[in-house]
Amino acid sequence: MKKGIVFVFTLALMLVLAACGGSGSSSDSASGSKDSNSIIIGVPGEPEVVNPNYSSDRVTLTIQQALYAPLFWESDGKPALADKLDVSADNLTYTVTLKDGLTWHDGKPLTADDVVFSVNAMIDEKQNSPYRGNWVFDNKPVKVVAENPTTVKFTLPQVAPAFENTLKTFFPIPKHIFDGVANIDKSDKNNNPVGSGPYKFVNYKSGEYYSLEKFDKYFDGKPKLDKVTFRITKDQNAANLALQNGEINLKTIQPAERNKVEKASDVNIITYPENRLSYVAFNQNVPALKSKDLRQAISLTLDRKDLIDAAYGSQEYAKPASSILTENTKFFTDKVETYDQDLDKAKQLLTKSGYKDSDKLNIIYLNNSKAQESIALYIQEQLKSIGVSLELKPTDPTAMSNITLDRKSAAYSLMLGGYIMGNDPDPYKTLYMTGEPYNYANYSNPELDKLWNKGAVTADDTARQAIYEQIQTTLADDAVVYPISYDNAVLAIGKQYQGTKAATPQPVTMFRDLSKLYIK
Amino acid sequence: MIQTISKRVLQIIPMLFIISLVSFALVQLAPGDPISSFVTPNMNPDDVERIRQSLGLDQPIYVQYFKWLGNVLQGNFGYSLINNQPVLGQILDRLPATIGLMGTALFFTLLFSIPLGLIAAAYENTKLDRFLNAVSYVGISIPIFWFAMILIDVFSIQLHWLPSLGMRTIGVESFWDVAKHAILPVTALTFQGCASYYRYVRSNTINQLKEEYVLFGYAKGLSKSQIMRDHVLKNSLLPVITLLGMYLPQIITGAFITESVFSWPGMGSLGINAIFQLDYPMIMAITMFSALLLIIGNLLADIAYTIVDPRIREVS
């Protein structure tokens, strides 16, 4: 028996040594904390498919922003890989001229052919790109031709002003790598990405880190930091502690964590608009909420300042919202009905709406979000004051998307949500048009559907403005959703890092160009 | 004996089949849609539908199951729905880290809990025994993530002795570096492991000490330490074999919470991600591995029992 125990012990030791030996034998020199001229960025999960034709989650998009360069910068539309954009008089032809002398990370030239290849790979149904819809109108794809090595011509089957925004969020992938690959999404070439951004791929250790080093031929000048490492840290409390320790130099934090993080660590805090709307949606599948009076009555009982305080603890992290469009979106207007708190009017409308106590209302929200929980509690409390009782329904994220994506569901009455939809108003239609998959309010207004469709194909900016202003006004008058706030993102970055202005904080990916960060 | 073993081995096949059937059904019945983890409202519904088809998620559950089963029988565990990479490769990537962490923790758990359990039993109801009991109660009842956070706060933040996360310093490839990163998670796991193993060893030993052969030993004039070493030790450690058998799958599947808190790149964090994103090929592969190991672990424990305990051999 004693032999047995000794055996077990030896086995355990062997396993330990085997495991550690495995790690010691690999001798790649990753970027790192040992190098002084580098940055370690904390990200909460693994990257998925690191390829701009597929990536859609925050972590992958963040890493991609350093690896690949877009034609134009999304935040202000200024040219990046592109030199300029010309739109024809009939608004059907878009001509993009690329900068001269662009190269991929492997030294091969980046030309118009790469752009054509990337777009066609997205249009190809067999490649299963989730972004195909951006390039196809009424089943007719955009025609894309390389006129010469630096000029690409896009011909649209119909006028589509939102297309300009599609071009501005477009990152080409290298043709010489992916040409002839049957399934680009499953290709292991995505594990060794070749991009054109400021930093090139070094290595990826699953569960540990994704490391990059500077690309000297980056179109916008040599990056100032030598190395960038994305460190995967699932547990956010532990990641915040690592920020104090200097094991992580940059990460996004929750507004509620700011004081703790700022006090404990040597960091600067940067807040900037995330172009995200937080809102309460009223599900019109619930009979009582078909009444506009009831929706307005509920809206009138709420106070945005209180809601923001409840959710974020301070007005600093969110701005009271008015319209369903965010402020960065083209044709945004704040001249809409905002339902400032008025309890007397709310009570009148409630009586008018024919609301009965038997109309049981509930509110569905994410059970892992402190902010949403506080908002839900606040709404419940406020509604009591006009005599409406609200059942709380905290739900885990997968179940919540299951319930709320069912367009026939009457299982939720009020829903807490948030969206980041970009700079053009056209994509917002999937949230408000009849029968669209993300129409959480199950709102239907044929007149407005027509306007959405018209807005998508109107080229003239003044005419478009009128359309989208009317859409915003109507949605506000109908109290389809109650817009709460335009949220800010909060970044914590080590005090030694400078150049955050030039690097330009932006939604989702933290910074738009990490190459501008440097150490003082 | 050989007959019994071969019978047990044959039983593994239907057992795994039923386990796979049940877990597949459970994964499919879970609320949510794997597609939703990478779909945004910006995407066109037609494209989403096309992706669903390409992943085979539009087919009835039983078709998906048999396709999956067919592939597994050919040794193909499929592609992750989330990052489109082969499931098996990702698991093999993570295994060394988990085996290293869990193996080390098991080693220290046994190293500490067995002698402590024996000592506590030998000095039952003394101050020492009560002290050890109190510590083990604490170990069993405090949440491990909380204990882990305390460890990080004290040893990484306050004292700056040890790193708080990951398996190595980026850019450093040395055994010592990995060991340094392992100290805190191993401590957390060992503390928790010891707390339960200790109680097991202690109560077994106390039972053994009441047996007649112990009294007989005293009567023969043996000292307490001789009795403990030569007779009680062996008998009270027998049930630990069963515990080890049950621990085997954990060596592979890892510790979800501890790995998350310390960002240890092992199977635990891989598994928990898969569960949150309903990545069923990944969930199924991990479930099948751990089921297989659990069965094998129990089988080995039973065999070991038969070998070391003659009474069982006689009965069977």
From TrEMBL, chain A:
Q: What is this protein called?
A: Peptide ABC transporter substrate-binding protein
Task: Tell me if Cell membrane is a UniProt keyword of this record.
Answer: no
Q: Which residues form the Solute-binding protein family domain?
A: 78-439
Q: Which GO terms describe its molecular function?
A: peptide transmembrane transporter activity
One GO BP on record is:
peptide transport
Q: Does the keyword Signal apply?
A: yes
Its signal peptide is 1-18
Q: Which UniProt keywords apply?
A: Signal
Please give the GO cellular component terms listed in this UniProt entry. Answer: ATP-binding cassette (ABC) transporter complex; periplasmic space
InterPro entries assigned to the protein according to its UniProt record, in alphabetical order: Peptide/Ni-bd, SBP_5, SBP_5_dom
In which domain of life is the source organism classified? Bacteria
TrEMBL record, chain B:
Gene Ontology biological process terms from the UniProt entry: transmembrane transport
As for membrane topology, the entry says: Multi-pass membrane protein
Does Cell membrane appear among the keywords?
Answer: yes
Q: Which residues cross the membrane?
A: 12-30, 99-123, 135-162, 182-200, 237-262, 282-308
Enumerate the SUPFAM superfamilies for this protein: MetI-like (SSF161098)
InterPro entries the record matches: BPD_transp_1_N, MetI-like, MetI-like_sf
Q: Where would you find this protein in the cell? A: Cell membrane
What start-end ranges are recorded for coiled-coil regions in this protein?
none
Keywords, A to Z, come to: Cell membrane, Membrane, Stress response, Transmembrane, Transmembrane helix, Transport
Q: ABC transmembrane type-1 domain: from which residue to which, for each copy?
A: 95-301
**Matching Pfam families, A to Z?**
BPD_transp_1, BPD_transp_1_N
One GO CC annotation, please? plasma membrane
Give a yes or no for keyword ATP-binding in this entry.
Answer: no
Q: Which PANTHER family does this entry report, sorted A to Z? A: DIPEPTIDE TRANSPORT SYSTEM PERMEASE PROTEIN DPPB-RELATED
User: Which family, according to the similarity comment?
Assistant: Belongs to the binding-protein-dependent transport system permease family.
Any idea what this protein is called? Answer: ABC transporter permease
What species was this sequence derived from?
Listeria weihenstephanensis
